[in-house]
Amino acid sequence: MTNGRISAVRLGDAGPEVGVQGLGCMGMSFAYGPTDADDARATLERALELGVTLYDTADAYGVGENERFLAPFFNAHRDEVVIATKFALAIPPDDPTRRIIRNDPPYIRQAVEASLKRLDVDVIDLYYMHRRDVNVPIEETVGVMAELVREGKVKYLGLSEVTGTELRTAQAVHPIAAVQSEWSLFSRDIEAGVVPAARELGVALVPYSPLGRGFLTGSFANAEKDLTAGDFRRQQPRFTGENAAANAGLLESVRTVAEAHGISLGQVALAWVQQQAQAHDLPVVPIPGTRKVSRIEENTAATRVVLGEQDMTLLEPIAAQVAGDRYADMTFTSAGRE
Ligand SMILES: NC(=O)c1ccc[n+]([C@@H]2O[C@H](COP(=O)([O-])OP(=O)(O)OC[C@H]3O[C@@H](n4cnc5c(N)ncnc54)[C@H](OP(=O)(O)O)[C@@H]3O)[C@@H](O)[C@H]2O)c1
Fold it and tell me: How far is the CA of 165 from the centre of ligand 1 (A)?
């Protein structure tokens, strides 16, 4: 598979043009075990050469560490990159190990200033509400986000882990460019509510964890056995115990498709997500995360893979058979709100 530049797409009616695949930068500082800063920096540069322009971070990734790590890269290429960051996961004053969700206007104002400072930029291109605090009306939250646009601190707005109803309410306050939610061969709950609402409203979908946090590539089969201490996935229900064994068995059909096309399992997973753009008639810009040059080359090449009807049929039943929830604590997700 060749390493040409990827194509571009508009990120929803209200958004900028971006490469059709973005880069998830979370793992460069957080959640997925030890990182090598030089490898991560080389990955960022290679991604840009390959036409990746949407770079995804959040203030919560390593308590600001990820934003600080990315700042020199963003500043070296300010006009070529679309910087996406997020607010909402706050540290409660009484316990620095815990996270709470905050969507109230004073918190957002404080969070945006902190992100601008860490990123060392005048404006954030795409600012997401990372999680929804159900105690704050979404109109109020998006209202203050809209003020940030008018004040020139933010260019475009996004929402993560919202329901279709919440997206509709938000869009009535200010145009939303993108919804970021988990979407992959293993996680398809958003197809019931958010995806139809996004299509109707002209909002793009930015699937996070499109590789099922790496599990869909076949690079690990059991997080407790295969991943290092401190890796977030060692606590997640899909990747441990009996669930992990059952879920590893589901990769058989992914392997069959991969062999038929002469590509990797990860490329099948990414091509499947990308093909949801046609299946649901809306812009889709997945943000697979990697810290390795060889993998950014492999992942971007997947944007040119076209799966046939037979492949899609073989892959169709997987999500319904996955054992275990997406997170150990599902209260931090949009599940059950619609
Ligand atoms: N909005 C939200 O709530 C939310 C939640 C989670 C994530 N995110 C965002 O979404 C991005 C992507 O999600 P994610 O990182 O959780 O999951 P992912 O993209 O599904 O998978 C990332 C994992 O797969 C590995 N990987 C990547 N390419 C590979 C390849 N070609 N072959 C084998 N392994 C490969 C990576 O390892 P290496 O890094 O070592 O290559 C990493 O461990 C994050 O970086 C973050 O920006 C958002």
Answer: 28
